[in-house]
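Email to the structure team, subject: 4Fe-4S dicluster domain-containing protein model.

Hi all, the expression group asked for a predicted structure before they design truncation constructs. Nothing fancy, just the tokens so they can compare against earlier work. One-line instruction: predict 4Fe-4S dicluster domain-containing protein, return tokens.
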Amino acid sequence: MPITITEQNLRLLIDTLVKAGTRVVGPKAAGTMTLYEPLSAGEELNLGGLPRRSAKETFFPLCETILTYEREKEGVRVTDVDPGSVPETLLIGARPCDAAAAPVLDAVFSWDYKDEFFLERRRKTTIIGLACTRADDACFCTAVGLSPADTRGSDLFLTPLKDGGYRCDAITGKGEALLAAHAALFADGDGTPAPLAEPSPGAMDLDKIRGWLDTHFEDPLWEEIAERCAGCGACAFLCPACHCFDIVDEGGEAKGARRKSWDACGFGKFTNHASGHNPRDVQPQRYRNRIMHKFKYYVDKFDQRLCTGCGRCIRACPVGIDIAAVLEEINSKGVE
Ligand code: SF4
Ligand code: SF4
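Reply from the structure team: attached below.
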């Protein structure tokens, strides 16, 4: 039996969970932008458009302390931050391009080293995904194998209905548990789905793109595209799938903290060695790494791509570098 929820009850669900002590994160107006932010009440939920930054911060904060240290009379006291201290969380209104990135990131954070900070947040988070009814010129999820109604990564999935409210589909056991725990807010029934967004780029041949990358580590294309790249890192910071970070001790001799902070392969010092040697010493080499990592290395390693076609890097790039256009160009080249 299909299940629906009204807009009012969706906001009531947030109120109920917030009162019960659950951390609820969802799209919220922030000045002229919409951002995924902690919500203190259902009325703050703003499902109007794609948030400016991705939802990855729910699992992978921009900066987090992993231990602190303090010099004592004899020796140094080191205190680990307990990853288990992260709260139960509901991420609500995640667009398919954001929700789908979460299981992609699971692969790297649970590979040789288990990142308990990331994994504990993933375990304790339920994701309510939301189908898109609007796309802009930068959206290209359909070109990378997703769609505006893709349920990957969601535990519960909402489809907007023509006459208001949402159809709810439980995708995982977590989604079923949420429905069961708040059954009074949901109703049996169906409805007519609102028309879905139609991102313009059609599907690309991603295997062909990977094949070209296999044989074109050196190619004039990298200079052509990336000579103008400013190395600002906006593309990586806004991306739901980019996940590089650095670990730095901050503080002084008496006390301080070890922090894990986002990093970006576009930054000039990202690969700088202590010796001063930098194996990627010019910007085209750094941009090449961005494309190679997303569409070859991660595929080779985990059989997944580090791009969900959200278009954020296209919207934000100060010099107009368009990753969808880059992929289209490679797609048009064929494998030589
Ligand atoms: S590479 Fe760009 S389009 Fe792809 S997921 Fe990241 S920000 Fe979105
Ligand atoms: S946003 Fe544009 S200029 Fe900045 S690092 Fe990315 S590709 Fe380069």
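The radius of gyration is 22 Å. Residues 206-252+265-333 form one domain. Ping us if the truncation boundaries need rechecking.
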